[in-house]
Amino acid sequence: MDQSRPDSFANLLPRISSLYLYHSRRDPVVFTHAQHYAKQLPQAVTRAYEGDDHYFLEGLPELVDDIKRI
Asked: How confident is the model over 44-60, as a mean pLDDT?
């Protein structure tokens, strides 16, 4: 799987009005990826968590709340 993060990917996307990024700071996928996406997608709401739960197995109440607000 290609894990490159081209700087121009955001230009290839249609305008997305409700975009949320969720990432654990100690996730096996490095946190700098989330920071990169947040920078490239300034309209996105970024939610960072202190844990290391990649799959949010304990749930993610903020995700539920965000979906309800859309």
From this structure: 89
